[in-house]
Design a protein that fits this description.
The protein has about 350 residues and is of the alpha/beta class. The strands form 3 sheets. It has a 7-stranded mixed sheet with strand order 2-8-7-6-5-3-4, sandwiched between helices. Strands 9-10-12 form a 3-stranded antiparallel sheet. Helix 1 crosses helix 7, helix 2 packs parallel to helix 7 and helix 3 packs across helix 4. Strand 3, helix 4 and strand 4 form a beta-alpha-beta unit. It has 10 helices and 12 strands. It has 2 domains: about 120 residues, Aspartate Aminotransferase, domain 1 (Alpha-Beta Complex); about 220 residues, Aspartate Aminotransferase, domain 2. The model has no long low-confidence stretch (mean pLDDT about 95). Bound molecules: 4'-deoxy-4'-aminopyridoxal-5'-phosphate.
């Protein structure tokens, strides 16, 4: 840190991104193992706005296409540079020194980072002992409620009725549901935007639409909430999404069949991987995401993480008290998961 730095920040620590990708089976940052759709790539090549011009500020076509997917209007959609950016916008828009935020103690690691960056108070509510979220813990909070659904890194899902009850009991504050992984087995609550003007839903093209590197996120919310986020956007970086990504994003929405087919592939591979790991003695939480949270009865989480890495398989270990026995494993292709299983077999043999 230089002597000029004025901040007391503890930044988010992303999963490792090795320079030489060819040396690793990379199952540590929940990327989609499949490339974006060919049709989307062709669409982007044809429709990308000239790059000497700034990107389209309103991106109405893409917003309309995303709105139509859940029966809303373009005014109900905000676009962002990955969903991380819109989460940041939401903390900026809906929190202050007087109005804090609340989220689970085990969830997406960026929430407390944004809270500290924005200088707002926050509370982390412990998950139940089975690592699930207790909806009633989020009733009557009078502050920004942030819940990932399915949660990360557990993969556990709250049902639509649970979400509705949280909305009902927080009529005077914003409830932000982060649906980064919803396409892998959950039911989106975006339709509830029509009934609840305090609901904000965060979505991303990074996972189900195979576009992590293109950086495209979006929010669904009432026109008033989206307007607030636009105010923040125009106060930070109005041209926050680049022209190529806008075109690729629209191409991806137009080829919804491809997304649905790849999500099915990943769900199938997830089922296979869970079965194979359970056969090897692992306990695996039921996952509605493109990752699983698994622990071995005899091998500590950190040791398994290191042994896998030594064999060229990268997974994610969180050095946190209640989850230190676990590793979060992204679902890749069947071949990648077989490589993981082969490495696990070798580790289990040498541990004996
Ligand atoms: N929310 C959750 C729960 C996530 O795990 C991630 C991915 N790290 C994000 C949001 C942000 O993803 P992106 O910025 O790529 O849209």
């Amino acid at each position: 840190m230089s002597r000029y730095f004025t901040r007391d920040l503890r930044p988010y620590v992303p999963g490792e991104q090795p320079e030489d990708l060819s040396r690793f089976v990379k199952l540590n940052t929940n990327e989609n193992p499949y490339p974006p759709s060919e049709k989307a790539l062709a669409y982007a090549r044809e429709h990308c706005r000239a790059l000497n011009l700034y990107s389209d500020l309103s991106a109405r076509e893409l917003r309309a296409a995303l709105a139509a997917e859940v029966g809303l209007e373009p005014e109900n959609v905000l676009l962002s540079n990955g969903s991380d950016e819109l989460l940041y916008f939401a903390f900026l828009a809906f929190c202050s020194a007087q109005r804090g935020a609340v989220f689970p103690d085990i969830s997406y690691g960026f929430y407390p980072v944004f809270a500290r960056l924005c200088g707002i108070p926050y509370r982390e509510v412990p998950l139940r002992s089975d690592l699930s979220i207790a909806p009633e813990d989020y009733f009557d909070r009078h502050e920004l409620v942030v819940l990932a659904n399915p949660n990360a890194p557990t993969g556990l899902l709250l049902g639509p009725e649970d979400i509705r009850s949280i909305l009902e009991r927080n009529r005077d504050s914003v409830v932000l549901i982060d649906e980064a992984y919803i396409d892998f087995g959950g039911l989106s609550c975006a339709g509830l935007v029509r009934e609840y003007d305090n609901l904000l839903v965060a979505r991303t093209f990074s996972k189900s639409r195979s576009m992590a590197g293109a950086r495209l996120g979006y929010a669904y919310g009432s026109a008033a909430l989206i307007g607030d986020l636009e105010t923040v956007r125009y106060s930070v970086n109005p041209y926050n999404v680049n022209s190529y990504t806008l075109a690729l994003g629209l191409g991806a929405v137009l080829d919804g069949d491809y997304t649905r087919a790849r999500c099915r592939d990943i769900q199938e591979t997830r089922g296979y991987t869970i079965q194979m790991l359970e056969r090897r003695g692992f306990a695996v939480l039921p996952s509605a995401a493109n990752f699983i949270f698994a622990r071995h009865p005899d091998i500590p989480g950190a040791a398994l993480y290191a042994a896998l890495k030594a064999r060229g398989v990268l997974v994610r270990h969180f050095d946190k008290p209640r989850i230190t026995d676990y590793n979060r494993i992204t679902i890749g292709t069947r071949a990648q998961m077989d490589a993981l299983l082969a490495a696990v077999d070798e580790i289990v043999r040498t541990e004996r």
